[in-house]
Amino acid sequence: MNLLPHPRKLQTSDGVFALDDSHDVEIMLIGSHTNNLWFSANRLALSLQSHGFGCTIGSNSVLTQPARGITLNIDSDKVHHVQGYALEIHAESITVTGGSTQGVFYGVCTLLQLISIHWLIGRLVLPCLHIADHPDFPVRGLMLDISRDKVPKLSTLLDLIDRLASLKINQLHLYAEHTFAYRAHRDVWQDASPFTAAEIQQVDFFCRARHVELVPCTNSFGHFHRWLKKEAYSHLAETHGPYTAWGRQRQGPFGLNPLHPESIALLRSLYDELLPNFSSGLFNVGCDETIDLGFGASADEVLQKGRGRVYLDFVQKIYLECTKRQRTMMFWGDIIINYPELVAELPKDAIALEWGYEFDHPFDKNSALFAASGIPFYVCPGTASWNSFAGRTQNALGNLLNAAESGLKHGAVGYLITDWGDFGHWQPQVASMLGYGFGAAVSWTCDANKSIQIADAISRHLFDDVSGTVGAVAFDIGNVYQSFKRAHNGNPVVFVMNAPVVLRSTPAEVAQKMAITREQIGQHSKSIDQSIKPLHKHKMTRPDADLIVDELQMAADWLKLGGDYTLHALGHKVNSAMFVKKQADLLKRYRKIWLARNRPGGLNDSIKRLKELKVGPSK
After folding, report:
1. Residue-range domains of the chain with CATH
2. Cα–Cα distance between 91 and 107 in angstroms, integer?
3. What three-state secondary structure class fits 387?
4. Is residue 537 within 8 Å of 466, Cβ to Cβ?
5. Among candidates 439, 550, 562, 482, which has minimal Cα distance to 171?
6. How high is the pLDDT of residue 19?
7. pLDDT in tens, 245-300
8. Measured between alpha carbons, how far is 394 from 481 in angstroms, rounded to an integer?
9. Residues forming beta bridges with residue 72, ordered by sequence position
10. Distance CA 224, CA 291 (A)
11. Vertex 173 angle, CA 222 and 277, to 5°
12. How far from 269 is each of 272, 328, 418, CA to CA, in Å?
């Protein structure tokens, strides 16, 4: 039984609970809080009805097990963990007992997975078993990038939330820089297809029904360039000139000037409009990658006090704005971790978000520092889907597991999977599913899930594919990056395609620096073909099955075209006419696939560099 996540404790026994489509199933809600269980009961009933079984839902104040029925019950004396549940399947009955409404919901989610595994046409045969389960991390979340450049349709987002809730994910951050429709700032978001206040309120309501906390999230220091490029806000930039970051020369603007009084005034106005749309008491204010700090307006202050101190002073101002609005501040920990002597000065009721996206990121070292300083923190690994088109499977699995083990060791209060869209958000949604599934699994119960057969699990429970094909294809195509020497944060071919933007170099310089060879590109292409070949054998029942197939095929084809582009950059002969034909076809497919799940804002920006790929006569 490849459940996702696999329970902490599962014991089978002799016998089966068997139904055929001649049976009606009674779902009985027991206790004094039965109104809180109707959502879970309806979820279960709809699933059984979709498999051809009749269902009725009733309630009773005392525990009375219906014959050949299912009982949902809250009993905190029996199940001590508020998110825990016990699932018992006997020959004549099924009981889900939770420590709370949330626990019952999670028990029903596990039962629904068992039904999907053991249902045959017209018949359901479940093994008798006992499950006792509760999570390692109280918070298991996803942060979805909706600013670079992909803003999902409301229907896309709600479907994703529903599927993630089924995996027991219970927190969602929508990373925003400029994609909320602030009333007074239309010039910033007018071309971005942003979320409106009404839409956020709808998403919040949808999340709460599924025990998911929707956390407001907007960057408040770095990553402010989309605002600062506009004339009305340009005076708030740290710099419009050059600065050096990650060993490369860059050009501003990027971050807010922390010394300008209007910077915090602007943030106040944004917070006052954004926060009332969320029921959460948390607020992710960002504050990561303040890479231009000290290169412009704050240069003298940084010289006098130090970069870390100037950073912390502004973060503490933001903290005060959060507390005034009765919100707990969450912030990315990548800057302050470089100044360990200042970590202890952080407010003890703020939450640090310790992030890193390579398999060997020092989660253990950094988590230990936050823990020793008494700062609550999350560990925040990533899906490794960005800069790759198809993901980086082994890196993602290593990164997600590393975060879980280090977070548990040092007492992290949460685990946040991050899914970014760096440099155009070229990857389709399918490329992130493995990260969602494995992250959900190891954050629920790490020991029970670290060796899970994740390809089969995501096939069954995310792609609705009983054949296991789509999960295997997603897993394997996500490993084609291993044809090359290791490149931080992406597939080397994608870096060559994006060379001027990502690495401020020519494609030839990037290809040579990464030591890419013709032989490696050949192996890369061969691995792509082998990975994608079984795709036609899938048995997906998802309504968007054809779109998922198209997404995987498109990712494969872009990677192969990127290989041709890299060959040309290295001076090898490439059929330019064929390249142009393939590129035109892919650009057309890219637009169609983008618009199937996402809003049009950001599409032109995303596709711009894919249009600019040129192959001329070889040198």
Report:
1. 9-133 (3.30.379.10), 139-452 (3.20.20.80), 475-611 (no CATH)
2. 18
3. coil
4. no
5. 439
6. 86
7. 988 899 999 999 999 999 999 999 999 999 999 999 999 999 999 999 999 999 99
8. 10
9. 29, 96
10. 11
11. 100
12. 5, 18, 27
- CA dist 248 and 505 (Å) reads 10
Question: For the residues 582-610, what does the mean pLDDT come to?
Answer: 97
Token duo for residue 332: 């990315």
Place of tokens 């005392």: 62
Whole-number CA gyration radius for the chain: 25
DSSP conformation letters of 582-615 = HHHHHHHHHHHHHHHHB-STTHHHHHHHHHT---
464 near 51, Cβ under 8 Å? no
User: At a CB cut-off of 8 Å and minimum separation 6, what does 212 contact?
Assistant: 161, 164, 165, 169, 170, 171, 172
3-state secondary structure of 513: helix
What's the CA gap between 158 and 202, in Å, rounded?
10
pLDDT value at residue 68? 72
Contacts of range 242-249, beta carbons closer than 8 Å, 24 or more positions apart: 242/295, 243/291, 243/292, 243/295, 243/296, 244/295, 245/291, 245/292, 246/291, 248/503, 248/504, 249/504
* Degrees to nearest 5, angle at CA 213 with 456 and 88: 50
Q: Which two tokens stand for residue 272?
A: 């006052």
Chain center to CA of 105:
22
